[in-house]
C-alpha cells in the first residue's frame, strides 16, 4: 500500500500495488523485517515522481567516519537537505558502547586503586624490615625529606613498571582485538555476536591514544598516592627507639 493524497493534500484511500517477489535478501538483522527493494523506475511510477528521487545512499570505506562525512557534506551543501548516517539510524549499539566506555574507565580506576593497596602493603613491610637501616640513616643525618623520597620513588618505580607493561599489553590486544576474538570463536565454535540478533557480527576496536595517556597518568598518580603513607611512616621512625631494641 502506498499513501495517497489529492491536490489539496487531503488523504485518500491508499494505492494498492501488486508486486512479484523475485528473490529474498537476507541480512541477518533488523533490516530483514523492514527492508524491501524494487526497481527505481517502478517506484517513481507508483509514487508519480517522474525522474525525481527522495534520497541518495553513499557507501563509505570506513563506517566509523560516517558522522564526519555527514558534517562535511552539510558544510558544502547549499540546498535544504536532510543528511543522516547509519549511526543515527541503527547506531543504538554504538552509542551504548560509548556509554559503557565511561563506566569501564571508572571500573578500571577502581581496579587500579585496589592494585595500589599491594604497593601500600609492600612498602609498609619494607619500612618494617628496613627500620634498622632507616634508623642508621637518621643517625647519620638523613633528613625526613630524604627518607620520604626514597620510599616514594620506590613505590613510583613499581607503579611505573606495572603501568608500562599494562599499557603495552593493552595496546597490543586493542590493535588485534578482532583477530583475537575471531580466534577464540573458532576454537570454541561459538560466536559472541550473532548477526541474527545484533547489527554487526564482529567486535570492532579503535585505539585512542589520548585514552591510553589518561590511563597511564591515572595509574602513576595512584601509585604516587599509595607510596605517600609508607614514606611518611618511614620518615617518622625514632632512631633511638629502633637502635635500642624497643
TrEMBL record:
<dbReference type="InterPro" id="IPR003838">
    <property type="entry name" value="ABC3_permease_C"/>
</dbReference>
<keyword id="KW-1133">Transmembrane helix</keyword>
<feature type="transmembrane region" description="Helical">
    <location>
        <begin position="212"/>
        <end position="231"/>
    </location>
</feature>
<keyword id="KW-1003">Cell membrane</keyword>
<feature type="domain" description="ABC3 transporter permease C-terminal">
    <location>
        <begin position="106"/>
        <end position="239"/>
    </location>
</feature>
<keyword id="KW-0812">Transmembrane</keyword>
<feature type="transmembrane region" description="Helical">
    <location>
        <begin position="102"/>
        <end position="126"/>
    </location>
</feature>
<protein>
    <submittedName>
        <fullName>Outer membrane-specific lipoprotein transporter subunit LolE</fullName>
    </submittedName>
</protein>
<keyword id="KW-0449">Lipoprotein</keyword>
<feature type="transmembrane region" description="Helical">
    <location>
        <begin position="146"/>
        <end position="177"/>
    </location>
</feature>
<dbReference type="InterPro" id="IPR051447">
    <property type="entry name" value="Lipoprotein-release_system"/>
</dbReference>
<dbReference type="Pfam" id="PF02687">
    <property type="entry name" value="FtsX"/>
</dbReference>
<keyword id="KW-0472">Membrane</keyword>
<dbReference type="GO" id="GO:0044874">
    <property type="term" value="P:lipoprotein localization to outer membrane"/>
</dbReference>
<comment type="similarity">
    <text>Belongs to the ABC-4 integral membrane protein family. LolC/E subfamily.</text>
</comment>
<dbReference type="GO" id="GO:0098797">
    <property type="term" value="C:plasma membrane protein complex"/>
</dbReference>
Amino acid at each position: 500500500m502506498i499513501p495517497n493524497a489529492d491536490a489539496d493534500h487531503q488523504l485518500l484511500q491508499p494505492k494498492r500495488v501488486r508486486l512479484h517477489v523475485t528473490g529474498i535478501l537476507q541480512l541477518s538483522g533488523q533490516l530483514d523485517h523492514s527492508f524491501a527493494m524494487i526497481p527505481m523506475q517502478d517506484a517513481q511510477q507508483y509514487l508519480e515522481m517522474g525522474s525525481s528521487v527522495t534520497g541518495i545512499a553513499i557507501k563509505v570505506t570506513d563506517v566509523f567516519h560516517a558522522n564526519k562525512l555527514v558534517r562535511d557534506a552539510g558544510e558544502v551543501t547549499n540546498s535544504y537537505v536532510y543528511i543522516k548516517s547509519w549511526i543515527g539510524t541503527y547506531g543504538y549499539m554504538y552509542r551504548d558502547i560509548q556509554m559503557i566506555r565511561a563506566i569501564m574507565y571508572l571500573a578500571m580506576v577502581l581496579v587500579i586503586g585496589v592494585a595500589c593497596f599491594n604497593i601500600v602493603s609492600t612498602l609498609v613491610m619494607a619500612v618494617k624490615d628496613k627500620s634498622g637501616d632507616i634508623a642508621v640513616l637518621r643517625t647519620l643525618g638523613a633528613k625526613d625529606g630524604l627518607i620520604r623520597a626514597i620510599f616514594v620513588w620506590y613505590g613510583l618505580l613499581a607503579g611505573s613498571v606495572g603501568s608500562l607493561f599494562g599499557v603495552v599489553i593493552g595496546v597490543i590486544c586493542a590493535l588485534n582485538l578482532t583477530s583475537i576474538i575471531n580466534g577464540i570463536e573458532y576454537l570454541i565454535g561459538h560466536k559472541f555476536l550473532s548477526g541474527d540478533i545484533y547489527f554487526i557480527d564482529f567486535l570492532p576496536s579503535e585505539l585512542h591514544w589520548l585514552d591510553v595517556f589518561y590511563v597511564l597518568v591515572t595509574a602513576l598518580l595512584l601509585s604516587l598516592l599509595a607510596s605517600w603513607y609508607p614514606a611518611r611512616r618511614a620518615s617518622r621512625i625514632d632512631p633511638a627507639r629502633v637502635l635500642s631494641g624497643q
